[in-house]
Design brief:
Length: 1185
């Protein structure tokens, strides 16, 4: 009864919370609540009352029993009725009120005998097992991982856990240990031992510590190796617990040793005796007494748990192995050591697909906004606008409040959990009944059944994903959400306990306040004696900018361009809501915007930001390793965009922007600036004699957070901004507030006194204006990209160049002091420099100084995403790109059998090739052939993973199959596209100016030809401009004369990109793989294997000995497949009788590729029949080798 009452109360509670929802939303809630109430009332009140009343009448009427007893029965019913009635009328109830935010530490260990084996099935089994037991730490022995498996490999994911590993010391796929731990734990991994295959971690909660050691000892250790093991094991224990500081110690792992002190019916081994003696001497008690390694004829206890405080362990024991081929059982311990669990929290979700769009628009249009807003200030107008809007949305968009809990993997079903429980019961029977072989067989059968169930459940889950990705009705947001889940961290990021003053903070409300305090302190001015100078007279400034016109069409254009995937601000008005409103919302916004502009006031409501901490790198317990992500109300950002456009256009039209600034500038980019930098360096290498170039790299500390508001207004005023626009921007910067949100908890609002607002549209532009004059009077070549500042100077004389750079660095320091900014204030992150040089013997270069520190000289420097080295050969950068991209190939291979091919190609292009594409026009030069060949191998391996083709398949055929161009061709294409944009003035002028005599050649007879740049050295000749100009001049004039960039781009891409072979939405992954192997000419067929030199084939003849086993012979003539061929031909004849009249070559091609003369429906059927023939023939069963 209690469960039904709880359910009814929960529904009533939900109804009362959402009482303002649309009527069609609440009716369903009311009906279901009324039904539940009637069920409870009838089942627990009326029926028992009738039954007891009848009994009372019978007892009294027939005098069967003492009337006093019947009165007692009725009194009991009345008591039950009263209690139940009170339960119904009381507030919401729950069997376990409130979230569980504290619990006891639980750990387990399993010798898994290879994580990667059988396609990582054991990890899936472990995840299913843990969905029931929810251990905090999962320790694994014999992981069989090595450096080929990166920690960010998604195949190693365990939902909700982070992974730490210690692989075999020789980096072979043997041994190894790892620990999966919940990220919410206050955990720290220690490096206190030289013992291989061992991990030690420390947990702390409320000034109490627990040390956990997970290890694996190989049974094949030599005597010397075992002595080393004992010595290091003893060192670990001494380091983590002493008599004066008796911390809780738990040691868990596979010791591969036996002792009668652990399990009385075992026999002692020398290693067991020594380990038992050592652990006893340190007061460690072994807790596991059941067999942990079970074979048909033996059972031993070699997987052990030791503790120095066994009274703290309130439960320990053994669970059966999860895999039939893994004879080690799972051991566990539950410890009376309190830890923190992130509590669930509530979130409001909106069902936009069920919105009454017409009702929303009519409701907004029917409001007389002029009357509503009459004589109100801007802040009151915004407040009323938001209230009206949210009321309309709540009435016309169904919504509900859901509870966000820790999520399980979506493929874990109740059937899997039940099977695990069944297996556990069978294992207990096995132990209870004397470990008979019959009971062991039952456990193994349950194991096999569980393995099959997990495999089928995962396959079904991925099939659902596959169908969703193949469905043209799937929204773009849902499609990309699925794809990103395979390559991104798909869990909600967890902020682990924060280490503050040597204590861990776990409470989320406290965390929000700590983060808010930390982030708000960053938004503070540097205190110095600097004051604003006099506004200079600018003779070039003829115009002033004091106002601008706002049009409704501009507002509507911005609304329609909003990204619906972006988060909403604290006002809860989302981009999807605004796009639903469309033109109906323009009028009230236009009134508010114009009123705001006319009064020079930016609404306070739109100056409040929700802030989320995002981890950058390093220790997640350290608050300094987080950066804030701010989210502002979207209506305010629409207004910001209008202001931005007006101010940006004014600065652009008056040529005010610094030509060396590439950040946040339309038409400019990181790659553009890198091309300019590298061109100048290569050009210095080309001089006779070759010159060196000195590059210095600076970074403004907390650049956006430290902007001086008075300084911004001063610089706006100096550049002609005046009147209401200046007042509006000044008010935009003033009186801003932020709060931090974590897991549904909010900090208090804190005022921000400096900086340009993060997450805003206008902020980056104001920052550019603020630092616009930083390069004034500098003699070196300055390059700016937002807050990244770099100086370059060609070295004609080392002493003169050093003096010049030191003078410029001094001027930058003076500028920073004047405008209360700071460059590289951390001594550990001082300014760095590279001396770019081709010289084998370098001259002595005087030191440079910045912030009274010597500028650090380095051999490589990452700048704008590219690693620059002294010789500009880009080897370090290419190695990084290769290593990063290679890690992702395994995911494609894993997903091949679950998601459609076109989605795999999209994944490759979006998440792998994009890494290869970045800045490729810079490092694409003939001197880098070896690395570029390695990059091409990444695409080749990706193509193999997508198709399932065999290594050795022709690249050309494989790329044809998928419609991929060679990466070398792609770089050629991108170089020429960029050169086209440079020539057509679609990039900054600093790139156009690097082309010699450009303005003259455009008027010559051969105007499609660009004059060659004279190059003395190969390195300069192979750099971007000389190389690209040579390729440009090879193009047909009809191509270079194209006046539209999209047409030029399409013309080039068609010349290099093959048309892909279609599979016509075939949905049999294995069948598609086998068909692809026939298409690309490397399969089980003898002709293919003989051609590729397989040792197991001595000639290309078919097993039928009639002719060469070609694809045509296999499909149409081989006598071994007469029955399958008959079925195939009958089906083809039903499709189109003329198909059977085709000659064998044409018919073979049709079966492999389809034919464009047929409809997609017929082609799909042909491919389906072809795949059915392939699978029915069983010719391709078994391994290829």
């Amino acid at each position: 009864m209690l469960n039904d009452i709880n359910l009814w109360r929960a529904q009533i509670g939900t109804f009362s919370r959402n009482f303002k929802n649309a009527s069609f939303t609440t009716k369903k809630s009311i009906k279901s609540s009324e039904y539940l109430f009637m069920k409870i009332f009838l089942q627990y009140f009326i029926l028992p009352f009738i039954a007891l009343l009848s009994m009372h009448i019978i007892i009294v009427f027939y005098n069967v029993m003492n009337p006093l007893l019947s009165i007692i029965i009725l009194a009991f019913f009345c008591q039950n009725f009263s209690i139940s009635y009170l339960l119904l009328i009381c507030g919401d109830i729950h069997p376990n009120p409130g979230p569980k935010d504290k619990g006891n530490l639980s750990i387990c260990h399993w010798n898994i005998n290879s994580i990667p084996a059988h396609n990582f099935i054991k990890l899936s089994l472990l995840q299913s097992f843990n969905s029931i037991h929810k251990f905090d730490l999962i320790c694994i022995s014999e992981s069989f991982l090595n450096s080929s498996f990166s920690c960010d490999n998604s195949a190693l994911d365990l939902n909700g856990y982070k992974l730490v590993r210690s692989d075999h010391p020789q980096d072979i796929r043997r041994g190894g240990v790892c620990i999966y731990y919940k990220e919410s734990l206050p955990i720290n991994f220690l490096n206190i031992s030289n013992l291989p295959e061992c991990l030690t971690c420390e947990l702390m909660y409320e000034n109490k510590k627990c040390f956990i050691v997970s290890l694996y000892r190989s049974p094949s250790q030599t005597a010397d190796e075992f002595d080393f093991f004992l010595k290091e094991f003893e060192n670990i224990i001494e380091n983590i617990s002493t008599p004066s500081n008796p911390n809780l110690v738990m040691v868990i792992g596979d010791f591969n040793a036996k002792s009668t002190t652990w399990k009385t019916d075992d026999h002692d081994t020398p290693e067991g005796v020594d380990i038992s003696t050592l652990t006893s001497s340190y007061g460690l008690t072994q807790l596991i007494t059941e067999p942990t390694h079970i074979l048909p004829n033996s059972s031993t206890c070699i997987d052990l748990i030791f503790s120095n405080q066994p009274n703290m362990v309130f439960e320990s024991g053994v669970y059966p192995s999860l895999h039939v081929n893994c004879h080690h059982q799972i051991i566990y311990a539950k410890i009376n050591f309190k830890i923190f669990y992130p509590p669930p929290y509530e979130r409001q979700i909106w069902h936009y697909n069920r919105s009454n769009i017409q009702g929303i628009k009519l409701s907004i249009e029917n409001i007389n906004w002029e009357r509503v807003f009459h004589d109100l200030n801007v802040d009151k107008q915004v407040e009323l606008f938001q209230n009206y809007l949210m009321n309309i949305f709540e009435n016309y968009i169904p919504n509900e409040v859901i509870t966000i809990n820790e999520r399980e993997s979506p493929w874990i079903t109740s059937a899997i959990k039940n099977k695990i429980q069944e297996k556990n019961s069978l294992y207990k029977s096995f132990l209870r009944n004397g470990k008979t072989s019959i009971d062991l067989d039952k456990v193994n059968e349950a194991c096999q059944s569980l393995n099959l169930l997990v495999s089928e459940s995962k396959a079904a889950y991925y099939t659902r994903l596959r169908n969703k990705l193949s469905n043209p009705k799937t929204s773009s947001k849902a499609y990309w959400s699925i794809l990103k889940s395979f390559f991104s961290d798909k869990k909600i990021p967890v902020i682990p306990p924060l280490l503050i003053n040597d204590e861990y903070v776990t409470d989320f409300k406290t965390k929000t306040e700590i983060f808010n305090n930390h982030f708000s302190k960053q938004c503070s001015l540097i205190e110095n004696s600097s004051t604003l100078p006099q506004i200079p007279m600018n003779p070039q400034m003829q115009n002033s900018f004091s106002s601008f016109q706002i049009e409704g069409d501009e507002i509507l254009k911005i609304i329609r361009s909003l990204d619906i995937n972006k988060s909403h601000g604290f006002d809860k008005i989302s981009a999807k809501m605004l796009k639903i409103c469309d033109s109906s919302i323009v009028k009230p916004l236009l009134i508010i915007f114009n009123n705001s502009l006319n009064r020079g006031v930016f609404p306070d409501q739109w100056k409040k930001a929700n802030v989320t901490p995002i981890h950058k790198k390093g220790n997640k317990n350290d608050i300094t390793n987080y950066r804030p992500i701010s989210v502002l109300p979207l209506c305010g950002k629409i207004f910001e965009k209008l202001i931005y456009n007006a101010v940006y256009n004014f600065f652009l039209e008056n040529n005010i922007f610094n030509i060396n600034q590439s950040g946040f500038r339309a038409g400019d980019s990181c790659v553009n600036q890198l091309i300019s930098i590298t061109h100048n360096i290569f050009q210095s290498f080309d001089l006779n004699p070759p010159f060196e170039t000195r590059g210095v790299f600076l970074d403004i500390s907390k650049a956006f957070d430290r902007v001086w508001h008075d300084g911004v207004i001063f610089k706006l005023k100096s550049n002609g901004v005046a009147g209401n626009v200046l007042k509006l921007i000044a008010n935009f910067l003033d009186n801003r507030y932020q709060r931090v949100i974590l897991n549904g908890q909010c900090s208090s609002w804190t005022r921000i006194k400096a900086g340009v607002p993060q997450g805003s549209i206008l902020g980056p532009l104001l920052f550019l204006i603020y630092i616009n004059d930083i390069s004034v009077d500098l003699e070196s070549n300055v390059k700016l990209f937002a807050d990244d500042t770099s100086l370059f100077s060609v070295i004609s004389d080392p002493t003169i160049t050093a003096r010049l750079l030191n003078n410029d660095l001094e001027k930058i320091q003076q500028w920073a002091f004047q405008w209360k900014m700071s460059f590289n204030p951390d001594p550990s992150k001082q300014a760095q420099e590279i001396i770019f040089s081709k010289k084998n013997i370098k001259p002595n270069h005087p030191d440079l100084y910045f912030n009274q520190l010597k500028v650090k000289r380095v051999s490589t420097q990452k700048h704008l995403g590219v690693i620059l080295d002294e010789k500009l050969n880009f080897n370090a950068h290419l190695k990084t790109v290769f290593d990063k991209s290679t890690k992702c190939i395994g995911i494609l291979r894993k997903l091949r059998f679950f998601i459609p091919r076109h989605s795999l190609i999209t994944i490759y292009k979006s998440f792998i090739r994009s890494q290869l594409d970045y800045a490729d026009v810079i490092y694409d030069k003939p001197g880098n052939e070896s690395f570029l060949t390695r990059l091409e191998s990444i695409q080749y391996n990706a193509a193999l993973a997508i198709t399932g083709a065999v290594r050795g398949t022709s690249k050309e055929k494989l790329y044809q199959e998928l419609g991929l161009e060679y990466l070398s061709s792609r770089r050629w294409f991108k170089r020429l596209c960029l050169l086209y944009k440079i020539i057509k003035y679609k990039t900054p002028s600093y790139l156009f100016d690097l082309i010699p005599h450009t303005r003259h050649f455009l008027n010559t007879r051969n105007q499609h030809l660009i004059p060659q740049i004279f190059c003395r050295t190969i390195s300069f000749s192979n750099s971007f401009f000389p190389h690209s100009i040579r390729e440009w001049n090879k193009l047909n004039p009809t191509t270079t004369d194209i006046d539209s960039y999209p047409r030029f781009r399409n013309t080039l891409i068609k010349s290099i990109r093959p048309v892909p072979n279609r599979i016509f939405d075939a949905c049999d992954p294995l069948g598609v793989q086998l068909l692809t192997r026939l298409r690309v000419g490397l399969s089980h067929l003898h002709e293919h294997k003989f051609k590729h030199g397989f040792n197991d084939v001595i000639n290309p003849l078919c097993l039928c000995n009639t002719e060469v086993e070609s694809v045509s012979h296999y499909y149409l003539r081989c006598p071994n497949y007469i029955n399958q061929r008959s079925d195939l031909m009958n089906e083809l004849s039903n499709l189109d009788p003329s198909i059977l009249q085709l000659n064998h070559n044409t018919l073979t091609t049709l079966l492999l590729f389809g034919n464009k003369s047929y409809t997609d429906e017929i082609n799909s059927k042909i491919i389906e029949l072809s795949i059915a023939f392939i699978k029915d023939s069983k010719r391709f069963d078994g391994p290829l080798f």
